[in-house]
Design a protein that fits this description.
Largest sheet of chain B: 9 strands, mixed
Oligomer: heterodimer
Strand content of chain A: under 5%
Number of domains of chain B: 3
Shape of chain A: rod-shaped
Number of helices of chain B: 19
Low-confidence stretches of chain A: none
Largest interface: A-B, 26 and 40 residues
Mean pLDDT of chain B: 91
CATH class of the largest domain in chain B: Alpha Beta
Distance between the termini of chain A: 49 Å
Radius of gyration of chain A: 24 Å
Radius of gyration of chain B: 24 Å
Number of strands of chain B: 22
Strand content of chain B: 15-25%
CATH superfamily of the largest domain in chain B: Alkaline Phosphatase, subunit A
Number of helices of chain A: 3
Shape of chain B: globular
Structural class of chain A: mainly alpha
């Protein structure tokens, strides 16, 4: 996976480095990536209509007078 | 506030012009009681006042530039044929997301067009109109779909009701009964702190029947009036009774009741065909047809072979679905009295109207597939079209047609503003609406439907801490969510566009605001606390664990 550098305050990195042996994680990067993935909200994901469903809805929109 | 509950009953398209006279006649005892015991506001809808943008603004407290829902379809950017919207396109937290995070249990039923696909909630969600079929999953939890199907649940009407007014009324009333029964069933099945349900009959019936009620309507006749003149009374009486049945289920000593519409309702006399106007002014060009093709089409249409007549036949023989599902190449070949999107010559078109309310998009380079307008000419063209729009005369009154022309920045703010239409128009006369459809030749035409949406709708709030019998004035639809959070004493995010309607509360607690950054910090802390207690991540916190 492609990676990109993020800058963090040095004292924080020092703290992390000290704590890392107690975590079982192999690197600061791996540990931080886990934390970030844990707290980020789950994405809603892509949703696309299939043609038949879309036609069905459009038909109803016409029926209700929203579309002609 | 631990036991506080809130129930929102949406009446799509409800209007005081219908409600107030019926209350005077003693026909709506429940709405009368709620108004007497609470605060009655006039509710200002969105511009334009259409269902997806209005309901989304209500449930997010934000303008469309922030939540990203502008229409039934996605904006026509990088395509001239955008797909329909879904709940996934909403880019702002809805009321249930905020309440769930705060530990409250929510039940959502039938909010139109903005709840499909259904979202995971702490409680239940049943998607509203905009759900393609009840055969799939349209609820959260998913297993509720099958359960409701077995109970005979319905979201919308059968196709065959379109051409038959009596059948339409019967089916609309049946749908209301089914939705009410489902609401009461779900209220008993699931524990809840917050409920939001919408009845759509108050919108769909006026769309069809204003010509039976309004003597000034161009299609009004004594015969229609004799037969259907009391139709609004009949359906509003049923809706009032439904409200009464829901309220029987709740303890009003700790429950706030909010009755609201997403917009009002009014008769529709004329349609302003924006694309025809753009064509007349030289901004839009149609593809030139070969003489022979045009001649064949003209002959076929004279013989009655057109999209419109074929569709009518298909409806009569119950094959409407089949007609709609024909491949687009077949549909394009059938002659029509209407000009369709695919008839536009995009290489020679500078601007066209798209979607509900005929909003105008410029055919901009690097934004539209065959964009013609350079970015440097954008503002000049907007100005030119705007000036011409202001000169159009209302065919009914002889006065100016246009009340206001808005650019996207005048209407919206937020990251999605750039996706909004370049020009949105608001008309002086609410009985005329701008539309995208263009029929051959005309700029103003007689509408197929009898009624439309108006800007001002209904808002009634009652509850243990709400002043009785007050009329504080006008509220905005974006005020609904902040007011709900105020009731639950949840801090308001500073990026809401709406405000809590604090003035209608007897004891007013100070407003608590929270910045987006502090809100995010709290959210992370809650996730970590939750992980500490049960060792696993959850997107919800339970109220009892607080």
């Amino acid at each position: 996976m492609e990676k990109e550098a993020v800058l963090l305050p040095k004292p924080l990195i020092e703290k992390l480095r000290e704590y890392l042996p107690k975590t079982g994680f192999e690197s600061i990067e791996e540990y931080l990536a886990y934390i970030i993935e844990t707290v980020l909200p789950e994405e809603k994901g892509e949703f696309h209509w299939n043609k038949e469903d879309e036609e069905e809805i459009k038909k109803r929109l016409i029926d209700l007078g929203y579309m002609e | 506030m631990e036991d506080t509950k809130v129930i929102v009953i949406g009446l799509d398209g409800a209007d005081y012009r219908i409600i107030d006279p019926l209350i005077k006649k003693g026909r709506l005892p429940n709405l009368k009681r709620l108004i007497e015991q609470g605060a009655k506001y006039v509710l200002e809808s969105t511009v334009p006042p259409i269902t997806p943008i209005a309901w989304t603004s209500a449930i997010t407290g934000k303008n469309a530039g922030k939540h990203g829902i502008f229409d039934f379809t996605k904006p026509p950017l990088h395509t001239y044929h955008p797909e329909l919207i879904s709940s996934n396109q909403r880019d702002a937290e809805a009321v249930w997301e905020i309440l769930n995070r705060e530990g409250y249990r929510t039940g959502i039923l039938n909010i139109p067009y903005v709840t499909y696909p259904p979202e995971p909630v702490n409680g239940f969600m049943v998607a509203g109109i905009g759900t393609p079929s009840l055969k799939g999953v349209y609820t959260y939890p998913p297993e509720l779909s099958e359960e409701l199907r077995k109970r005979g649940y319905k979201i919308s009407l059968e196709d065959k009701t379109r051409e038959n007014r009596d059948l339409r009324i019967k089916e609309e009333k049946r749908l209301l009964r089914i939705q009410l029964d489902t609401m009461i069933y779900l209220m008993k099945k699931y524990p809840w702190d917050f409920l939001f349900t919408v009845f759509t009959i108050t919108d769909s019936v006026p769309h069809i029947f204003w010509d039976c009620v309004d003597p000034n309507h161009p299609k009004y006749s004594q015969e229609k009036s004799d037969k259907y003149g009391k139709i609004f009374e009949r359906i509003y009486t049923d809706v009032d009774a439904a409200i009464g049945k829901i309220l029987e289920q709740v303890d009003l000593s700790n429950t706030y009741v909010i009755i609201m519409s997403d917009h009002g309702s009014c008769p529709l006399y004329k349609e302003f065909l924006v694309n025809n106007w753009l064509k007349k002014e030289g901004y839009l060009r149609l593809k030139e047809e070969r003489l022979i093709k045009r001649a064949i089409k003209t002959v076929l249409m004279k013989l009655g072979f057109s999209k419109e007549t074929l569709l009518k036949i298909a409806i009569q023989i119950g094959k409407e679905k089949w007609a709609y599902s024909l491949p687009s190449i077949v549909k394009k070949s059938v002659p029509s009295h209407e000009v369709r999107n695919w008839d536009i010559d995009w290489n020679k078109t500078k601007a066209w109207a798209h979607g509900c309310w005929g909003r105008i998009y410029l055919n901009l380079k690097n934004r539209q597939p065959n964009g013609k307008i350079n970015e440097k000419d954008y503002h000049k063209l907007i100005k030119e079209i705007t000036e011409k729009l202001y000169k159009i005369t209302d065919p009914l009154t002889g006065k100016n047609l246009i009340k206001r022309v808005y650019t996207k920045d005048e209407l919206y703010n937020g990251p999605h503003t750039e996706n909004a239409a370049d020009i949105t128009i608001e008309l002086e006369n609410e009985t005329i609406i701008p539309i995208e459809t263009f029929r051959r030749g005309e700029i103003f035409s007689t509408p197929k439907k009898a009624g439309t949406h108006s800007k001002y709708g209904v808002l009634i709030i009652t509850g243990p801490n709400i002043k009785k019998g007050v009329k504080p004035g006008t509220a905005k639809i974006i005020d609904i969510l902040p007011t709900i959070l105020y009731i639950f004493n949840i801090p308001l995010l500073t990026d809401f566009d709406g405000r809590p309607l604090k003035e209608c509360f007897i004891n007013q607690h100070p407003l608590r605001y929270i910045t987006r950054k502090d809100f995010e910090k709290e959210r992370i802390k809650k996730i970590l606390r939750r992980m500490n207690t049960d060792g696993k991540r959850s997107c919800f916190t339970s109220k009892t664990s607080h």
